[in-house]
């Protein structure tokens, strides 16, 4: 075995020229991106919750809101229809009673008083009944909600009330 000859003393060592950079080899390792730390920096602002959880709560909120809107609309619609039906029934009964009266009632009572009576009774049913009906239904819903929460939190108290 022959040893390799020493480099020639007069030839300068090979250095790449500054104007041309060597082409990267396809087998050379690529620079990896800097690794992030597993824990955030103490001065960093808090991170928002994951979007899935936030979206689920948003959908629940929107669903409950739409449900309340639909229930309120249907309740108002049915209450208005009930009051209109009550007004129609009241008007029919008043008219039937007035038409069945004897002529003595018409001689003793002025016609304006009879018309005024029809108008005020019908107006009170049309104007005051919807508000009273809605307030009554809201009170019933609040009472039912309180009882429901009471049963969930303290069922033993409700058992003692029943027994």
Automatic annotation (TrEMBL):
Biased composition (Pro residues): 1-50
Matches recorded under Gene3D superfamilies: ABC transporter type 1, transmembrane domain
Membrane-spanning intervals of the chain: 58-77, 131-153
Domain ABC transmembrane type-1: 57-163
Keyword entries, A-Z: ATP-binding, Membrane, Nucleotide-binding, Transmembrane, Transmembrane helix, Transport
Pfam families noted in UniProt: ABC_membrane
Alphabetized InterPro entries for the sequence: ABC1_TM_dom, ABC1_TM_sf, ABC_transporter_C-like
UniProt key word Transmembrane helix: yes
Domain of life: Eukaryota
Annotated protein name in UniProt: ABC transmembrane type-1 domain-containing protein
Entry GO terms, CC: membrane
């Amino acid at each position: 075995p022959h040893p390799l000859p020493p480099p020639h003393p007069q030839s300068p060592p090979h250095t790449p020229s500054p104007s041309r950079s060597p082409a990267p080899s396809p087998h050379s390792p690529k620079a990896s991106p800097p690794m992030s730390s597993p824990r955030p920096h103490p001065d960093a602002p808090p991170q928002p919750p994951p979007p899935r959880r936030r979206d689920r709560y948003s959908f629940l909120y929107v669903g409950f809101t739409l449900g309340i809107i639909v229930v309120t609309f249907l309740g108002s619609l049915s209450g208005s229809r009930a009051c209109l039906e009550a007004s129609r029934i009241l008007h029919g009964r008043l008219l039937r009673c007035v038409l069945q009266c004897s002529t003595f009632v018409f001689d003793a009572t002025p016609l304006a008083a009879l018309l005024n009576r029809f108008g005020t009774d019908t107006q009170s049913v049309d104007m005051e009944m919807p508000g009273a009906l809605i307030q009554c239904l809201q009170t019933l819903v609040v009472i039912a909600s309180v009882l429901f929460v009471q049963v969930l939190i303290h069922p033993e108290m409700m058992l003692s009330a029943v027994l």
